[in-house]
Protein 1
Amino acid sequence: MNSLDSLLLVGDQANHFLPLAGWVFLGAGIAMALHACGGWAARRRGLAAPPPARWHWWERLLYAVAVLALLDLSVTAFYAVAVHGHLGGWWLLGHMVGAGTFLGVLPLLALTWCRPCCFELPSRSDQRQASGAQDEGQAAVPLPAPRRFSWLGKLTFWLMMISGIVVAGTMLLSMFPLFGTHMLEELLDLHRYSGLVLAAASLLHLYSVCANRFGLG
């Protein structure tokens, strides 16, 4: 085993990381199923979700590139670790290609969707209009404005941003001759677990986008 493989070897971490990854993705699947059931039940009761806002073509292209880059990162990382025990060879090369792509897309995602993903409370004018409509006994309820992301999409977007910065930062720091072997191993662990958070958050965000399109809230 050469020095590069020994550095990238999971070792004892495989006994903890892979089962944890399985539980994390299982929890994400259960959360998506519960959210879909709740959205379907709300539609049956007549509580329709706001209509989805229309995306520009470049937003769709940007999101598609991000999804493909994250898919490449997830497959090359989790499959290589699960089957080979470490990330090396062609799997590492494919992982680096996805990493470079995602590193270029991440700031563009932040600039595009930071504002739509902010959690905002209703303004006082909106509250006064709602109370005035109730006082006047108006039966007509205005249609909700189109929304770009649901609360789940906003939450997972910020998880993607934070974990993505940690994932990129740990590897960038590892490229500089600033740390010893022990600190490099700590950075690798941080990179590994933040990558798990990024993969799970990305999966939930992709689901939230699809659920929003189908009116599941």
Note: Residues 14-118+145-213 form a domain with the Fumarate Reductase Cytochrome B subunit fold (CATH 1.20.950).
Protein 2
Amino acid sequence: MTGFTIGIRKSIWSLLLIFALSSFVTAKSQATEVSLFPANGATGVNPDTHLVLTFSVPPTLGKSGQIRIYDAADNRLVDSLDISIPAGLDATWQGQTRPSVAPQGPYQTTTIGGMAGLHFHPVIIHGNIATIYPHNNRLRYNRTYIVQIDQGVLVAGNARFAGIQGNNNWTFKVKQAPPSDNATRIVVAADGSGDFNTVQGALDFVPDNPPSRVTIFIKNGDYEEIVYFRNKSKLTIRGQDREKVRVGYGNSSLFNPPSNPPVARDAFTVAASTEIHLTNFTISNYLSGQAGALYISGDKNILSRMNIIRSGDTLQVQGRLYVVDSKIVGEGDSIIGKGPLFCNKCEISSWGSYAWPRNPQENHGFVFLDSLFETPDGPSPLGPLAGPPLLARSPNNHGIDYLYAEMVLINSRLKGILPVGWGEMASDTKNVHLWEYNSRSLVDAKPIDGNMRHPASKQLTMERDALTIANYSNPTYVLGGWTPELDQ
């Protein structure tokens, strides 16, 4: 699509001032080019499109003004964004990474996946590109829309962006109809070449319980959005390339605090869903602190060939989850939850404690087969740490003791782990399973010194524990009788 160009011009000295100074001053008019996406007059636009302005110089967000979208048929206002309203709390608030009480707004709010009241950024700027995020599900098929932007919403260089006024300077028409109701493959493309521009747009379209499995295919690109869905089943979300499909957002328990839903702090949330398969893309949270990348609850869910990257509580697991050939990167307590979780051939990287298993007696905890645990080189983004990380800890948490906490490593390779291996546990550890078999150094492949491990832990041997080793090497055993099958 061809961008529409709008001039942004500096004001010049008035003639009165020039004459008053008794000198002749010529201020050369300078223009900053800006291209629009969708282009002015574009057709076939997806209803979940962002509004993108690309400047010739880096813009900044102003302090006031509105962005408005009108239906061209009757000039009805269908959406507006007031830039004077803050998005939410910044990365730290009163020295905290999460507030003890919910701070009072008002803040920008939107509805994502049916969850109302989530904070979001109405405009995000990277370099020369300003992306406007309309509220979800405001645009309709086969309708033409007008975009207007007040002067002062964006500032480019030394000049104020004059804005976009009138009914003809930025219009576009949404495509005539959505995909078929019984479609089994939906394509997401940030450039507008697919069925939807955003992951959330595709998820909002897909039925909760389709008669057969539906695949959402994501083309290569950056998808900066909070993703949230619940009560869905038989759904595969597949990226074109694991490293080139990047879905993420700067979200946290500070930005979306405790007054919001308890799982609102993650970049990507799969809630109360069954037979979900995420494969071949990257999920990131761009903030530190209580800022998870993926929260996943439900049953019989799978992650394969995934990168899950961020700060504390990177991956939270509530319900049976199988993870294979995936990488999890965090800053501490990188995997938490009730499980059960079976990780096969995974790489876990963390500056702080790798895991916090919270499983009850009724199900297994976290099991890792043929996996790698590595402490990243360099300082932690959270600042100086007390020392090398632990494999896991499971202390009393607000009066709750995890008396059956379980984490088992089979044939793992370790680097940079504290020799004691395991940290603070429940007051009574007789039913806690902190077990290892054949843990070796990633550096020289030598067996770790089991004598240095926490007294509540156990080193398994083939002579004494062959059946236990075989059972915990079998995902069907760990996952309560479910045998995962990858959707190819």
Note: The chain has two domains: 15-83+122-174, 185-478.
Protein 3
Amino acid sequence: MFDRVLTVDWSGRSKPSPVAPCADAIFTCYGDQTTLSHPIYHRTRQSAMDYIHKVVAASNDQKGTTLIGFDFSFGYPRGFAEHLTGSRDIRSLWRCLADRIQDDAQNANNRFQVAADINGMFQGVGPFWGAPANVQYAELPYKGSQRHGHGLPEIRATEDGVKGTQSSWKLFTTGSVGSQALLGIARLHQLVSRFPDIHLWPFDGPIPPGLNGVVLAEIFPSIFALGQDDLIQRFPDQTYHIKDAVQVRMSTEAFLRVRRADWDAAYPSERLDDMVREEGWIAGVSMTKGALWSHHHH
């Protein structure tokens, strides 16, 4: 189904990650139907995006479909977008967030300030929460339990029943995907502004068969965190001692193998369509059974 796949394990760090590859930093892994590259370690979001922009430009010069998968949420629980922008359209939401986010070449960014400002637009306290002790905004509570009355769901439909997913509202401590998403969405906005033909899945509907172009989708790489020992043994000089590197490689392999029928079977019924086009969906998570199509092919 996909001629080329690039998967991205993202990071919300506020400084460049160390020179030596380490966990909880950005890793990408690129492959096509003949060759699978080893993961690349990126110290900053800027350097990762420079690379991703090159991959998109190169893909646009070739025939076939390229999937680029990022491991942060592209959308938010139902109701957030409309309150912020007056519409459920994902591109409007991305533009709105990108207009607020500042994120420089060394990873310095204003994500906590942006979250506090957005909280101020909702009633009650929240929905965003979590910050280091030295970051103090009246509108941004330190604990999730301090929130009330903001009126939004805690998770998206796609996260229901998927082990290990975290709420988009959580900005700090373990698996703070909220920070990754705010910073990631700002970068995706720049990417789709430069390459407007990119197909945003599932927001733009099903992927057209035989598409010559790039598809962006949200992935959850820890679904594919198998085979680390084998990779370390086969490639001792690579970064496979780091789980992030294993996950992007295994994700890229899985998406290179996926068949159209399996991808389509995971797409939501019409019943969910409105919700999915607003909130997004994790590619590879079945919309009906919560089962993962990836497991059929191991």
Note: The chain has two domains: 4-73+187-297, 98-183.
Protein 4
Amino acid sequence: MKKNKQEISEHLGEIDLFICSSGFEDRSTLLGLSLNSSLIKRAVAFHLNETYSVADENINLIRANITNLETIVYPKNEPIDTFDLFYNFLNDFIGQSVKSKVLIDVTTFTKEVLLILIRVLSLEQFINSVDVTLAYTPANHYPEWLTKGIRQIRSVFGYSGLHSPSKKLLLIILNGFENERTQEIIDSFEPNAILLGKPSQTDSINSDLSAKAEVKYDYIANEYKSSILENFEFSCLDVIETKNTINELIDKYNSEYNVVISPLNNKVSTLGVAMVGIDNEVVQICYASANQYNIKSFPKGCDYYLLYDLNALLSN
């Protein structure tokens, strides 16, 4: 569902808990600045330890509108501790009330942290206790580079996968705008085969991003053409469409291959990958952490939000 800034607060109504992430991008503040603070009972910003100082400034911008905004610090590159922190926070929260209405701004969580948060929320004790709306502020353009260098490539906690030693390795890539990350992941896994995906033109955020993604995709497709078993398209707007696309690929190749998925595009397509991982315990999801982010020229946000009902996504 698409809602513009002027109508978002009225559409959402009263919110028992608002969760967001600090970030160096302006996009981290846009939803928090658009909400009616009088309709929010509790608000929490999860703040990455040892991050850029501009992230603190952006939290303060949100707090100027939502004055009761709390800050919870979580550790960098410590996925198990991050899982525990989310779990304990939500467990304490649901113990305080009947079924609650929760709004989560997923825009500037890292893909790994978002996947971990969704895994926690998928647990029965939480999905039966909260109605969760996920909000995403799309970027209307990207700079020439987003990140530089790869610190570590690892499986995402909660999505480790059950692999058979007798099977070959298949890497499913949802390519985006960071070819260095794509190449590092491919070279690290050395897969027997690759399924390389690109955003469909009809389900991209806009035509400019679609064209830029096409150029990035063509480069990877040419570099690794001998390993690419199949090409596919996915949606950057429809979580379930992306989920179904990947599930069809898994059904096609799972008997022969162990499957690893690398979500390298936007958070909407990453949510589609999360749904796949939750439904398929044999699938592993991987993440490449970056050494450096481009804080001088970051993506600019659109003037609207995309909303998703997490409870409906998990039951689909």
Note: The chain is about 40% helix and 30% strand.
